[in-house]
UniProtKB/TrEMBL annotation:
Keywords on record: Oxidoreductase
Upper classification of the organism: Bacteria, Bacillati, Actinomycetota, Actinomycetes, Kitasatosporales
Superkingdom of the organism of origin: Bacteria
CDD domains documented for this protein: SDR_c
Molecular function via GO: oxidoreductase activity
Protein name: SDR family oxidoreductase
Keyword Oxidoreductase: yes
Family listed: Belongs to the short-chain dehydrogenases/reductases (SDR) family.
InterPro entries: NAD(P)-bd_dom_sf, SDR_fam
Pfam family, one: adh_short_C2
Amino acid sequence: MPRGILVTGGATGIGLAVARYFTGRGDTVVITGRRAAPLEEAAKETGAHAVVCDHTEPGALLRLLPELPDRLDVLVNNAGGQTDFDSPGGDDLAAYARDFRANLDANLLTAALTTRAVDARLADGGAVIHIGSIAADKGSGAYGAAKAGLASWNVGLAGLLGPRGLTANVVSPGYIADTEFFRDKLTTERRDSLVAATAVGRPGVPEDVAGAVAFLASPAARNITGQVLNVNGGEYATR
Ligand code: NDP
């Protein structure tokens, strides 16, 4: 039977790979994002239903609800990103506060607000999966703090959803090449150092993350909840 799936930020990168996996199975998939153009393109390619939605906005989430399947089997909280690549230094406290809040909103509030908004639709036996980051463990300013907060918040969520037969987990990628996340933001040296930090000697691709999501959304993972699944090419195995 086709499952009902929501992939936030599903028009590009990791979210698009996740959406492709589920539409490929014949599931009913809704993808979201703030920009209409990439959503339209992704919808054409995958057959997913695309809805413009800013997941930091409660009003936008309420408008999203009628677009979703009545029964949501899998929620993938993938929307996010690092908003302080060019964080101003010095004593511009207002700019610092703006950047800090933007990271928390983009990576933590999005997931919490979305999960809360769709809670009544989540089907027994379903799965909530957040896309975290290795930055949660390695330290990466406000972005890393937001992703660490996401993993911590998820533990409580797993406790709340467990009695309903729902699981809640985090997939935590390392460096995933060729998404908008790092595009035009890395020097060759920085890219090489990220690859050198892996045990496998190559960056991940969005499909690596989609594979982990697919597993956590499958019946094989029904007894796994409140966990973080690292998909980082063995970054913790290198010295
Ligand atoms: P992308 O920039 O391609 O994907 C992010 C997606 O999220 C975009 O489609 C973006 O669309 C959407 N998005 C961002 N904010 C919002 C919002 N407020 N509401 C709705 N949609 C939003 O990069 P990735 O695919 O790499 O990133 C996906 C996830 O993976 C992110 O959570 C990121 O933090 C995480 N990650 C990525 C890593 C990497 O190396 N690439 C490593 C570790 C984690 P739009 O701008 O149109 O809203």
